[in-house]
Amino acid sequence: MSDSATLEQPPQDAGERQPVTKKEITSNQPTWCPGCGDFSVLSIYYKLIQKRNIHHERVATVAGIGCSSRFPYFVQAHGAHYIHGRALSFASGLSISRPDLHVFTFGGDGDAFSIGGNHFIHTARKNIKMTYLVMDNFVYGLTKKQTSPTSPLGFKSKTDNWGALDRPINPMKLAISAGTTFVARTTHTNPKHMLEMMNAAMDHDGFSFIECLSECTEFFPGAFDASNPRKGGEFSLVPEDHDPTDEAAAYALASEDFPGRFGIFYSVQRPTKNALEAGVIDAAQGKFKGKQAPDVLQATFNKMK
Ligand SMILES: Cc1ncc(C[n+]2csc(CCOP(=O)(O)OP(=O)(O)O)c2C)c(N)n1
Ligand code: SF4
Ligand SMILES: [Mg+2]
Questions:
Q1: Residue 295 falls within a domain, yes or no?
Q2: Residues 182-220: pLDDT tens digits?
């Protein structure tokens, strides 16, 4: 990808305001374990907000429940630490009713693909405008090491102490097949790449999904070493000649063995639910232009007589 061409945009907010500072958008001290990958995601999110100069009243940070989902506590802006697995439903309503906000949703692999799996599929097919970043650590962190939907076969946890028996979900394949219009993959060990992906996702007019590998140093240490050159692994980008509008090619990339590829797998334009629903509302309101609400009601009652 090109080197973040849109990062240096002029401020989007009121003319003379000072640029957003990190202090303004930083809230409580994160409570994650030392070395947790989620720290890296949070610091890149601060960076994104600063680079794009989005003042705190223009951004909303939504999450479900989990270690990763504690995210909104640490951002000084609109936000909700919502119900486990239900972050996308809350964020969908927010996105549709408040088009002036940039809606970002964060969560973990359990929140996104276990209890929240159904919401994920339907948010994708509806193409609701927001960015959804899943901090995938292949385990339930907050509840102290249960098997998650992305845990690899054989992973020993408190729920499968003999080793996980169930075939894991592939988040990228799931996202593509459900109709997500922007699908990218990154990792907490490459902050520059993560910023590029978040920036591109934010530019996308639709539902943009990022799987971000984010190590749980407490309950699954070393899970992503194979993707980390500093640990002897390999960080392989999506090939330069990959066509991100080719769904079959994106699916093939997503099918590669772990650690797989990093970058934008899929990106297409399709009308958002936000735009379609606004069109329906405009058309309905157009029919009653210039009329008072009581007259409209009376006319409806008259028809029912
Ligand atoms: C309705 C409901 N069911 C179960 C829980 C317990 N619970 C809280 S977080 C969690 C899983 C967290 O795993 P993940 O989403 O992967 O986030 P992580 O902690 O790994 O970042 C579970 C099962 C809950 N809080 N609410
Ligand atoms: S338990 Fe794991 S995911 Fe949770 S804060 Fe600690 S290292 Fe991070
Ligand atoms: Mg998890």
A1: no
A2: 999 999 999 999 999 999 999 999 999 999 999 999 999
* Cβ-Cβ contacts under 8 Å for 130 (sequence gap 6 or more): 91, 92, 95, 103, 104, 105, 123, 207, 208
Alpha-carbon span 183 to 204, nearest angstrom = 10
If you measure from the C-alpha of residue 136 to the centroid of ligand 3, how many angstroms do you get, rounded to a whole number?
6
User: Which CATH number does the domain housing residue 184 bear?
Assistant: 3.40.50.970
Domain total in the chain: 1
| Residue 297 falls inside a structural domain | no
Q: Is the CB of 33 within 6 Å of ligand 2?
A: yes
Distance 155 CA to ligand 1 centre (A): 18
- Give residue 63 CA to ligand 1 midpoint distance, Å: 11
Q: Which ligand 1 atom is the nearest neighbour of the CA of 65?
A: 9
Whether cis (ω within 30° of 0) applies to the bond prior to 19 is: no
Is residue 78's pLDDT more than 50? yes
Pocket probe for ligand 1: among 83, 84, 188, 214, the residue whose CB has the most ligand atoms within 8 Å is: 84
Q: Is the residue at 15 inside a domain? A: no
Share of the chain above pLDDT 90, in %: 87
**Confidence band, pLDDT 50/70/90 cuts, at residue 15:** low
Q: Which atom of ligand 2 is nearest to the CA of 214?
A: 3
- Look at the pTM and tell me if it is higher than 0.70: yes
Q: For residue 105, what are the domain limits? A: 22-270
With respect to residue 225, please indicate whether it lies within any of the assigned structural domains. Answer: yes
DSSP-assigned beta bridge partners for residue 99: none
Ligand 1 pocket residue status of 58, Cβ below 6 Å:
no
Considering every ligand atom shown, identify the ligand nearest to the alpha carbon of residue 215 and give its number. 2
